[in-house]
Automatic annotation (TrEMBL):
Coiled coil: none annotated. CDD domains: RHOD. Residues 11-97 form the Rhodanese domain. Gene3D superfamilies: Rhodanese-like domain (3.40.250.10). Transmembrane segments: none annotated. This is Rhodanese-like domain-containing protein.
Length: 106
């Protein structure tokens, strides 16, 4: 199955962004408006997602591609963010941290 993928700079304004990274990765730096559901919890928490398109991100794009593939398989509309949060950071997009330190993507 081919997973739809876009570049971080092509993500539509106001789109629902799902971050599937682990808790420590999320805390170090994430998109301000993202929703965090670690990949291992996604199946149990899928009902927390909206009915429309979901843009999925992880660190570099592998986990989010798996998440997007699964979401599309169950009938949801999901798009992978190519290059993940590393591309987000390189594109100069805003990041917030929950660690008390400047945000970064490891």
């Amino acid at each position: 199955m081919t997973v739809p993928e876009i570049n971080v700079t092509d993500m539509p304004a106001g789109a629902f962004l799902l971050d599937v990274r682990e808790n420590d990765e999320w805390a170090a730096g994430h998109a301000p408006d993202a929703t965090h559901i670690p990949l291992g919890e996604l199946q149990a928490r899928v009902d927390e997602l909206p009915s429309g398109p979901v843009y999925v991100v992880c660190r570099v794009g592998g986990r989010s591609a798996h998440a997007a593939a699964w979401l599309n398989h169950i009938g949801r509309e999901a798009v992978n963010i190519g290059g993940g949060m590393q591309s987000w950071e390189m594109a100069g997009r805003p990041l917030v941290s929950e660690t008390g330190r400047p945000p970064f993507v490891a």
